[in-house]
Amino acid sequence: MGTDGRVLWQTARKGATAVIPTPLVQDDYVYVTSGYQIGCNLFHITKTGDRFEPREVYKNRVVMNHHGGVILIGDHVYGHDDRRGWTCQEFKTGKAVWQHEDDMRKGSCVYADGHLILREEERKGSRIALIEATTAGYKEKGRFEQPEQSGKQAWSHPVVANGKLYLRDQDILLCYDLKPR
Questions:
Q1: pTM of the model as a whole
Q2: Same domain for 69 and 148
């Protein structure tokens, strides 16, 4: 929207059931992803006079993210792909840098201090893992199972603020001190 509330540009993009992850924006590029076998797209937005034109750069299924969100760090997108697990993807080309399938299942993530904190959405046995935010592969530093779980899927994203990690699971709120000792 412009300052007057008018739509500046729009483009058609297939979705299914729910398109939940927040778009990523870097310079004149907009990246979107969704699950349900849809995948991801990158659009380049150009401006000529008062007109904005979106052009699709790529469309693929490297990252089909249901609702856990994706994070842009430098020139790479990190998040969970519904088929191939935790993924690092080149932002501008759409190519997979690495994809890691193990028992760390689908969920959400947050970035802090050179690392990603991954959180599974499982009803029971939901875990949190710490990995390096690197293009060199999935490098896990540790993981733990969330205590006092609600027994429902944990869809709220982890939050890091002022050196603390906050996890919400229905009526449960957990806070962890992340500051080095």
A1: 0.93
A2: no
Specify whether 44 is located in the same domain as 129.
Answer: no
Contact 178, 160 (CB under 8 A): yes
Is the predicted pLDDT of residue 32 greater than 90, yes or no? yes
How far is 144 from 81, CA to CA, in rounded Å?
A: 21
The CA distance from 76 to 138, in Å, is 14
Residue 112 in contact with residue 178, Cβ under 8 Å? Answer: yes
Which residue has tokens 């994809």? 99
Last-in-domain residue among 78, 101, 124 = 101
pLDDT in tens, 52-65: 999 999 999 999 99
Euclidean distance between CA atoms 140 and 181, whole angstroms: 21
Q: Using CA atoms in the order 168, 173, 174, 179, what is the torsion angle rounded to 10 degrees?
A: 80
Q: Are 63 and 33 in contact (CB under 8 A)?
A: yes
Domains: count for the chain? 2
